[in-house]
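Entry 0007
Protein: Ribonuclease Y
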Amino acid sequence: MLTPIIAAVASLIAGIFVGKLAFAKNTQRIEEEATSKAADIVKNAELQAENIKKDRILEAKEKFLKLRSEFEDDSNKKKQILVQNEQKLKERERTIQISMEQTKKLESDLNSQKQSLTSKEENLRKKTEEADKKRIQAEEMLASQVTQLEKIASLTAEEARKQLIDALRAEAETKASSIIKNTIEEAKLTATKEAKKVVIETIQRTAAENAIENCVSVFNIESDDVKGKIIGREGRNIRALEAATGVEFIVDDTPEAIIISGFDPVRREIARLSLHRLVQDGRIHPARIEEVVAKTKKNIDEEIIEIGERTVIDLGIHGLHPELIKMVGRMRFRSSYGQNLLQHSREVAKLCATMAAELGLNAKLAKRAGLLHDIGKVWHEEAELPHAILGMQLAEKYKENVEVCNAIGAHHDEIEMTSMISPIIQVCDAISGSRPGARREMMESYMRRLKELEELAVSFSGVQKCYAIQAGRELRVLVDAENVTDEKASMLSYDISQKIEKEMQYPGQIKVTVIREMRAVNYAK
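Output (structure tokens):
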């Protein structure tokens, strides 16, 4: 019974001992591994410390070298500055030394010159004294001779001098009077001859065109089929064109042509260009017609500026104000007694330049005044002034030369001429206007009557636009539909016709047509 227990105890003790031995070995192994790891950690730490130390040393060396290099550069710069300053000081010392040597040399030269001047002054003083003695002797001899002559002639020297002067003066006056008389007579003979020569040479050197009375423009079309499109259904397109442009469109049996009739060349040109664009586009209806006419009017304004710029460039005139350039371009569409105003002004400018050059005056200034002398005729606002005075005021407004302003204002004798250019402008204006074929008096009076006719109708309340067509035999008045009723339109037509009868003179009769158009416009959004 005891034997198995003892055996079990012995085996237990043996197991415990074996376990302790195994634990001891495991513990020793763990300790050895820990020791090895600790040693590795320490070794790595020492290596890292060594590397960090080396890096710090390298950085310190680099910084030291950099600071040393900067210090050396700074030192070298300072040394260079010192060397330069030393060189400058040496140069200044050398310059001062040279200046001192030159000063000493100048002092010696001055001393020598003073000595020579002193000797010269002494010699001069001696010569002056001798001259004074001789002069006194000569005066004494002259006085004695004059005394002797006075005794012989029974006249004093003053009396003799006076008689001689009076005789010379009388002789000089006689000769001068004769010379002046001959000069005046010669000037009268040659002045007329020279003036005629200048005018003839000026006219001969200028080529001019004849004036043509033209109140119609012909618009050519490719085929007569286009005429139907232009007329429109029941003539609505042709009516819209006439209402928008203010001219008359004559569509007759003339093959492949439509006649545009109107006294205002600007309106005719707008009508012609608008019709050309409409025919090219192919869309011809009242709304499109109004759109195209509006665009064409804007383009005509741009063309006016272009014509003005081209004109001043052709004539070599510079520095002209933009508004004056625009007025020059507007002359293209204005005529004076049938003579195109721009052509007339260009002609006068060239004549003035030629005549001024012949007379030795400022040709450029004369050309400028000649071009601008009729700008008062194209001013867009109504003014109760002669066109010459209005033109002068416009030139003064836009800072033109005083001589140019006077020439413009005086070319019809409204003001006094104050420069030599003014009579040249007047003469050249007369030459351009009075030459054969230059003007037609009937054209000017006709255009004036039509403008007065339109202005009369526009003066009534409610009138928007007014156009004289058919050579002044019909007056078309467009009124505001909101302010003028149908009944009032009829009364307005009667009032205008009565006022025309009372205030105007005209051949035949004038048809007054008042047009009232009602439009309803809305927008789909």
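Curator remark: The chain has four domains: 14-150, 218-302, 337-434, 446-517. The CA atoms of residues 373 and 458 lie 30 Å apart.
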